[in-house]
Every structure is written in structure tokens, then in C-alpha cells.
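---------- Forwarded message ----------

FYI, see the TIR domain-containing protein record below. Original note from H. follows.
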Amino acid sequence: MASSSTNLNAQSKFDVFLSFRGEDTRTGFTSHVVEALRRKQIQFFIDNEELRRGEEISPALLSAIETSDISIIIFSKNYASSTWCLDELVRILDCKKRNGQIVVPVFYKVDPSDMRKQMGSFGEAFVHHERIPCEVRVQKWRDSLIQASNISGFHDSRSFRNDAELVEKIAEDISKKLEDMADPPNVDGFVGFNSQIERIKSLLCLELDDVRIVGIWGMGGIGKTAIAEAVFHQISSREYSNHFDGKCFMRNVREESRKMGALYVRDEAISRVLGESNLKRGTLTINSYIWKRLRRSKVLVVLDDVDDNFIPELESLVGQLNLYGPGSRIIITTRNRGVLGVNSIVYKVKGLEHDKACELFCRKALSRKNRSDDLLELSKKVACYADGNPLALEVLGSSLRQKSKKQWYNKLHDLTLISGPRII
């Protein structure tokens, strides 16, 4: 995920767009910001010189701006001397106005008041720009600089002890903003899960500095992944935003292992946690330098839907509790109790209680206009056959939506033949 790209298509989507003056900061300050974003697994767009040809801002850059959640604008001494940068700024502020894009200005060794009043290097730049025949375009640049100077951000780079401290603060700020923007898993759609989510959080004991592995075990469709996603999101939120050095949610480990190979999944997990895309991959053993880095890191890792085929790689990742830094937490979801080692705290996911099962079933099976007493009573009987399994309830409910009462009775009859009568 932590990558930059200049190969864009209509579906491209970035967390962050970086606007900066290349000759001022590309190989210095901006490169350090890029590395900090990469470590935090933030997907960003940074242009290359190939895109900056001609007088007009390229469609690729316009697309990148439009499809980013946040724009970081690094104002430096010669930022305003570039018509490209000024056109980017105009488009970014337009996205802020139209789409609510978040804008984070960074004033790198320049004074915001100089930009606001267009003095110093900013004033010098406009001595040249005034020769451009299009007055409207030049005025837009002036207005945009004034507007940007009043946006909350990093207004005094000199107040930080060094660039490294400033870069880290920028990366932390962006990470928090993205976490606040993220859509939480729709736990409400999985009726009756809140108590189980809270139970998992209590088993994690986040206040302790030990390394802890929690296994979430249960049949397919019982809600293991939904619970793990909710827990991961909640403990990755602002309250815990500085709690972990690295985080990773590896979905569908069973399926991905079959498609890409178990070693690939193992190495991808390590790469995401460390925020390092250039790790040597595919070797049976993991080199000692990687383990040293992991032992220094407090990490949060979720391995979702692990099966027997991943056991050797699982052993290398979580076989020993001292492989990660103090306070690290590993969550494993699985259908097979046997893949969870002796170091794991195991939680068995419970099926929904009957009233919650009926509630979920009715959400899928009945429309607001079609909730007769007869169908509500039938719902209670049919829902019993799902044994509290949320996925089964959803599938069964969806199959009966907008069906006749006769079809409901036929389905109940079929279920009775297969499983025998149930007592409500």
C-alpha cells in the first residue's frame, strides 16, 4: 500500500497528494516526508519530472489531486516561482471547496505572512508572473496563496529542533486525519456483536507491555472477520493512534496463500508492519536484521482466516512471543482450533442469541411494508435453523425476501426435513 505512482487510471485513489517545488525540496525535505508516509503505509502520489512538461498542468496530476483525500502543500522559497505549483494550488483549493478535501500546508523555512502579503521571494515571483497576459489566472494564484496561508497546518518549521522532528509530526498528523476519515466496519449490520468485540478488547489487555496473541475461533460465517475488523479499527483509532509502531490487517490468509503462496503472505505481513516495500521476499528463513527491527517494534497484526496450510509460516511469525517488541498484539481468526498454538489466548465466537438472530434475519427477509404478524412468526421458526450463524441468517433471509407466504412455508418444510423440527 505504501507506494507512489505516476501510472493513473480512472479508478486511482490516493490518501495523500504531495505538492512541492522540486528544485527546493525534492531530494531533501520532501523525500523525508515521502519515507515517513511510506513507513506508516499511507498511499501517496508524488510526481516525477516526466509529468512536468509543457505549460499546462498534466491530466495525470489533475486526476491525482482529484482522487486524493488529503493534499500536503510544502511551501518553500521558490514555490511561487513555479506556475505548475500555483496551478496545483488552485486545483487543490478548488477540491477543498467542492469535495471537502483536507489541505495541510507546511511552511518550510518560509514565513506565512510573506506568502499572505506576497513579500520576499513570493513578491519577487509575481514580478515575473505579472508579465503573463492572463490577469485572471495570476489573480487566482494570488488569492490562493492568501487563502492557503490562513489554513491550519505547520506554519513555523523553525520551531522544530530539526527536519526529522517536523517530518515525524507531519506523518503523525496525516495518519490521524486518515484514521478519523476511515469508515468503521458496519458492526450494526451484525446484530449482537458488540459484547463479543468488547470481550476481545479485554483479552488483548492493551495496557500491559507483554506480547499477546488472541485467537478468534469459530465456524465459517459466524462473524470472526467482522469482529476482528471492528477491534482492529477501534484500537487503531485516535485514542490509540500512537500506540503501535506498525499495523497490518492481512485478510483472507487461506485464500491468498493458495493463490500467491504462504511465503508471499508471510513476507507481505512483515513488509506492511515495517512499512518497507523493498524487503527480500520468498526465502524460507527471515534474516536476522528483519527480526531485530521487529523486536524493536510494537506492532498490531491481524491474520484473518488462517488454515493448516499456513502453519509453518504462522510458526515463524508468532511461534515465539519474543519476536516482537513489548506491547505487541497479534490477532488470528481461524475455523481450525488446531492452528492456534499454546501461546494463544483462544476465544470461541458465539452464535447470536435467538432474539438477535431473528432481528438480523428479519432485516434481510422482510421489508418495512411486509411485516405481517404471520411472517414475523414464521421468521422466528425459520431463523432457528441458522443456529445463530450471521452469514447463514443473511443468506436464508435474503432468499425469502419478497417471496409469498406459501414459499415461506415450503422453505420451512424443507428445513424441517433436513434438520428435524426445532423448538423456539
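H. also flagged this: The first strand starts at residue 14 and ends at 20.
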